[in-house]
Design goal:
Helices cover about 30% and strands about 25% of the residues. It has five helices and 18 strands. The termini are far apart.
Length: about 350
């Protein structure tokens, strides 16, 4: 019917994996996304290339996860397909100028399809390339993700874009810590990172229900599943300047090492919630489940504090030190941190 272009014989030099991929793109181009894309304004084009750079760096994180974690990274990679790789291909196709750049964008579509196939069979078994003799500890999944990143790098080279290296594995973004949410000032969010999986444990009130959220991180960005709290499944967040920043303008601020809930052996049924803002330390507590809640203030200087216990009938300037996760007092009493 004249819809399929005439295929040209492949030269022997073209019979590489990439060469075959290019031939398939040329042969089946009618089934791929359109080659033509509107030319954006200069500022918009620069912004789009910047977004492509961020997505490309996230793809590198996925590749490294496949190599180092194998099947344990499968969940992150599957989510990365939707959140990173498919948007990367779409933006490359939109931003690509010239036939060579457009070809890279279309090749990426093929690599994504092959990655999906490798994931569908959980192909993380060690693989040695017959062409290059390179060993892929993460199997064909790692191999396909390398194809993705190689295509990204070639696209950026063709576009004359500078690629800023991602943070090295030796210096990852420090997500771990306890955070303050202004929407729940009496609660807490305890954040810990294991590989690319972020775990957030928190309460909205001192004695409120404890909840746990999971997220997939890509360097200093994350997609957090808030469905256990009735929120969205993939809420984007960014770690910046000691804060976790959300699209709605809410920011979680990383707290000091003093912040947390402590136990007091003299009042085993009670609690002591400690928070620091500037150099002012606040302790809110109960001595037992039936007693009234009380609050005392202190001034803090590094690992030392001077606490005014006069609202509880105690001394006005009792010294205390933070030591090995405990608040230690001169009389030998120590409050261990329990949350």
């Amino acid at each position: 019917l004249g819809l399929v272009p005439q295929a040209r014989p492949l030269a022997a030099s073209a019979m590489t994996r990439r060469g075959i991929g290019e031939a398939l793109v040329a042969f089946a181009g009618i089934a791929l996304l359109p080659l033509a894309a509107p030319a954006p304004a200069r500022a918009a084009a620069s912004e789009e290339l910047s977004e492509i750079g961020v997505l490309g760096q996230q793809a590198i994180v996925l590749r490294d996860a496949a190599r180092t974690k194998g099947p344990r990274a499968a969940g992150a990679i599957v989510r990365g397909l939707e959140m990173t790789l498919e948007p990367l291909q779409s933006k490359m196709l939109s931003a690509g100028k010239g036939e060579a750049a457009q070809t890279q964008a279309q090749l990426l579509q093929g690599h994504i399809l092959e990655l999906k196939q490798a994931l569908s069979t959980s192909d993380f078994d060690e693989y040695v390339s017959k062409r290059t003799a390179k060993t892929y500890m993460g199997g064909m999944v790692e191999r396909e993700l390398e194809e993705v990143t190689d295509t990204f790098f070639e696209f950026m080279r063709l576009m004359g874009a500078k690629i800023v290296p991602a943070a090295s594995a030796a210096e990852p973004p420090v997500w771990d810590g306890r955070y303050f949410d202004p929407n729940h000032p009496r609660g807490y969010r305890e954040v810990s990172l294991d590989g690319s999986t972020l775990t957030i444990v928190g309460r909205d009130e001192p004695n409120g229900l404890k909840w746990t959220l999971k997220a997939i991180t890509f360097g200093s960005t994350a997609n957090i599943d808030f469905t256990p709290k009735g929120g969205p499944k993939d809420l984007p967040a960014k770690l910046q300047a000691g804060m976790i920043i959300f699209p709605d303008g809410n920011n979680w601020t990383k707290l000091s090492k003093w912040d947390g809930r402590y136990a007091d052996a003299n009042h085993p049924q009670g609690y002591r919630d400690v928070s620091v803002r500037g150099n002012v330390l606040t302790i809110v507590g109960r001595d037992d489940k039936a007693s009234a809640e009380w609050k005392v203030l202190a001034t803090v200087n590094g690992d030392s504090a001077s606490i005014d216990f006069s609202p509880k009938g105690g001394p006005k300037d009792l010294g205390a030190k933070l030591q090995d996760g405990k608040i230690v007092f001169p009389d030998g009493n120590a409050w261990p941190k329990i949350e």
